[in-house]
Structure formats: structure tokens, C-alpha cells
Amino acid sequence: GGPVIIVGAGHGGYQVAASLRQAGFSERICLINDEAHLPYQRPPLSKGYIKGAAGPESLMFRPEKFYQDQKIELIAGRAVSIDRAGHKVLLASGETLPYGHLVLATGARNRLLDLPNANLPDVKYLRILDDSEALRSIIPSKTRVVVIGAGFIGLEFAATARIKGLEVDVLELAPRVMARAVTAEVSEYFQERHREAGIRIHLGVQATSIEAEGGKVTGVSLSDGRHLPADLVVVGVGVLPNIELAAEAGLPVAAGIIVDEYLSTTDPNISAIGDCALFASPRFGSSLRLESVQNATDHARCLAARLTGDKKPYDSHPWFWSDQGDDKLQIAGLTTGYDRVVLRGDPARKAFSAFCYHGDRLLGIESINRAGDHMFGRRLQAMDRSITPEQAADEGFDLKSALA
Ligand code: FAD
Question: Is the ipTM of this complex over 0.90?
């Protein structure tokens, strides 16, 4: 019993609070929020939000009244330490909050570029609403952007910037875009589509320095000796999970805050969820740390269920999406560790899915503009079923028959 204190009011933190109330939890709930906004959705920050003119309220999960009605206390501030023996969290303001259960939903922060001039105002990152607002307001005064990193966020932003009329160069150290996350087939498709849109993608290169004059960015030098002019640099080189609060409290951390299959730390009164959590996954036979809305919200629901008496191991199936220009990528399952990829549909017709297999086991499906395949994949996984690679490749094979 006792209050539930949630550190971090992002996707995970918000959802724990909402799900606790939905499940009838009646004690105090505090959501500690270090951003100056009501809890909001992050995905549009690199997509529609920069393109459009909608205000911040368009991103909010719920209006302020929801938190009042639900008696979810939004507390502006930062948690700075945990007193585990005393069951209290200390905020930067000096205030302490007693907890019955403490939820760490601290998310992740951008990995910063360690280059000269990387802290100039024209070098931007994308994680929080303020980042997206800042980019949206300066883009009209810019002409050439160099995007460092061809991961999801870098490419989403690159596509958006191109639509907004900027010259766009993208730098990527790996030999293909989104290399850690998607199959070569999907990388190649997106490389081609971005190039068609007029984006220059430079693979196998690194930024070695950012040039500036009088505090204004003038360009980026590359590891192959080239120099690209630019008046804006946007960096998307990955994130670091926010594990320090847990580590300083003596909780085990590695590439995330270590939690078991119930999302509990070694301290039964403290759990961790979302981007910051390295969780034991019986289904995948390993520890995972995922960065997705699905992961954060399903973690939150699982934890809220445990805290209201319905204890089950976390066992949701991962899924993900990324919108880049006119293309929608959707991923069902975890497409890593495959040894065989079969395509359904046709990249030339801008609609196909890559079915990823290890042996005969279907690990996941990457779909481009094939929402039906994606939903099929999620339903198939939920039923713990599979189809053979031959069936996947055969457009004459009726997917629905596999769900019957
Ligand atoms: P977050 O949402 O990051 O929330 C953590 C919060 O905790 C933050 O507000 C942080 O400031 C706060 N915090 C940290 N430490 C403290 C502290 N000590 N005290 C108080 N507060 C603290 N996922 C998808 O599935 N699809 C997408 O298309 C997609 N697009 C994305 C686009 C962008 C630009 C970004 C940045 C992310 C995107 N993601 C996407 C990933 C997704 O948004 C994250 O996986 C998700 O937000 C994780 O939720 P979380 O609650 O774990 O962390």
C-alpha cells in the first residue's frame, strides 16, 4: 500500500498513472514531471509537428482537467535522489515525497556529439517538445541542414526538412541507413526513396568537425575529407538511458535499469519501465531494452496491473512504426537474429513486407505501406502462430487463413 510516486511523465509514466486509476487504485499518485508541459506524445516531434502549425496542446495525452478529475498529482520538478530505507524521493526543490511504490520512468536522453562547436545554437537535437518547437521556428530561416545519424529520428527529420524546402545531407557511419534496426532490403528501399526526394545520403562517413563563423554554423567536415556547407546541424546519434537516479540509490544497472520479468528492481518497492528499463524477457530468452511507445505503454499497463493485484510477467509482443516522407514503416516482432528474409509485395510498387525468419521460425515482419501485413503479423504473434517462408512469399496465399 501507500502512494505511488512516478519519476518521469513521458509515455510510460503517464500510462502507469492512468492505468492505476482505471484499475481502481485509490491511494495517492504523483507524477514527477521535469518538462514544462502536460504529458505529451513524442513521435510527432520528428514528423508532423515540425511540418504543421498545430500548437503543443495537439500533442497532449489529456487536458489538465483529466489529472484533476483522476487525482493524479502532476508535480513540476526533478527527482534527485532516492532514500530507499526511508521510502522517500527527494526533489531538486528540496521537497521529499514518501512512497509505497516508486516507479522509475525516466526514459532516455540524447547522446551528445563530442565535436568542436557541437554546442552552438544551430546544432540541434530531437527528444523533447522544446527541441521540436525550436527546430520548427528556425527552419524557415535556414537553407541547408546536415543531419548526423541515419536512424529513425534522423531520417524522419530529414524527410520533414526536405518537405519544408531545405537542402538536406545525411551522414551515417554504417554502410546502410537504420542498420541496427531493419533488414538490408528495407534500408535500401528508404535510401532510394530519400534520394528520390532530393536528400543526399552519405554512408560510411563520420562528421569530424563542425565549422562556424561568429557563432554561426557554416558547415560540417567529413572523415573522407569532404566538406558540406550547412547553416543547421541536426544530430540523431542515439540515446543514453537515464539510469543515474537508480545507480546512485544502489540499484543494479547495466545498459539500463535492471528489472526482472515483472519489471521490478532488486528492491521490491521500486520498478522501472520504458526506455530506461533493461528487462528480463522469458519470451526472448534475454534482457532487452527497447525504445518504443508500445514498450513504454505496455510496461506501464503490466506494472499498474501488478500494483493492483494482478501480477503477471511482462510478455507483450513488440511493435513499432516510423513515418518518413510518404512512406510508413511498421515493424511487428523483433527483427534481429534472422538468417532468412523473404519479401511479400514489391518494393518497386512502394508496398512490401520483409518477413524475417530464423530457420523456419518467424521473428518479425517489417512492412512498408502494407498496414494489412503489419496487423496480420501482430495478430499471428498474439496467437503464437507462424506461416512458412514459402507462404509469406506467395501473394496468392491468403494470410487470413493462418488466423482462422
Ligand atoms: P520518455 O517518454 O522519454 O519520458 C521520460 C520522462 O522522464 C521525460 O520527460 C524526462 O524528462 C523525465 N525525467 C527523466 N529523469 C527525470 C527525473 N530525475 N525527474 C523527473 N523527470 C525525469 N517510438 C515509436 O514507437 N514510434 C515512433 O514513431 C517514435 N518516434 C519518436 C520520435 C522522437 C523524436 C523521439 C524522441 C522518440 C520517438 N519514439 C518513437 C520513441 C518513444 O517516444 C519512446 O520510446 C517513449 O517516449 C519512451 O517512453 P518513456 O516513458 O520510457 O520515456
Answer: yes
Q: Kindly state if the Cβ of 78 falls inside 6 Å of ligand 1.
A: yes
Per-residue pLDDT, averaged over 309-313, amounts to: 98
Q: Is the beta carbon of 330 within 6 A of some atom in ligand 1?
A: no
Whole-number Å distance, alpha carbon 106 to ligand 1 midpoint, is: 8
- C-beta of 97 in contact with ligand 1 (< 6 A): no
3-state secondary structure the chain: CCCEEEECCCHHHHHHHHHHHHCCCCCCEEEEECCCCCCECCHHHHCHHHHCCCCHHHHECCCHHHHHHCCEEEEECCEEEEECCCCEEEECCCCEEECCEEEECCCEEECCCCCCCCCCCCEEECCCHHHHHHHHHHHHHCCEEEEECCCHHHHHHHHHHHHCCCEEEEEECCCCCCCCCCCHHHHHHHHHHHHHCCCEEEECCCEEEEEEECCEEEEEEECCCCEEECCEEEECCCEEECCHHHHHCCCCECCCEEECCCCECCCCCEEECHHHEEEEECCCCEEECCCCHHHHHHHHHHHHHHHCCCCCCCCCCCEEEEEECCEEEEEEECCCCCCEEEEEEEHHHCEEEEEEEECCEEEEEEEECCHHHHHHHHHHHHCCCCCCHHHHHCCCCCHHHHCC
CA of 347 from ligand 1 middle (Å) equals 32
What is the separation of C-alpha 359 from the centre of its chain, rounded to a whole number of angstroms? 29
Cβ of 322 below 6 Å from ligand 1 = yes
Q: Does the C-beta of 46 come closer than 6 Å to ligand 1?
A: yes
Q: What is the pLDDT of residue 32?
A: 98
Q: Could you tell me the distance, in angstroms and rounded to a whole number, from the CA of residue 343 to the centre of ligand 1?
A: 32
Ligand 1, atom 52, lies closest to the CA of: 274
Alpha carbon nearest to ligand 1 atom 23, residue:
292
> Tell me: the pLDDT tens digits for 44-87?
999 999 998 899 999 999 999 999 999 999 999 999 999 999 99
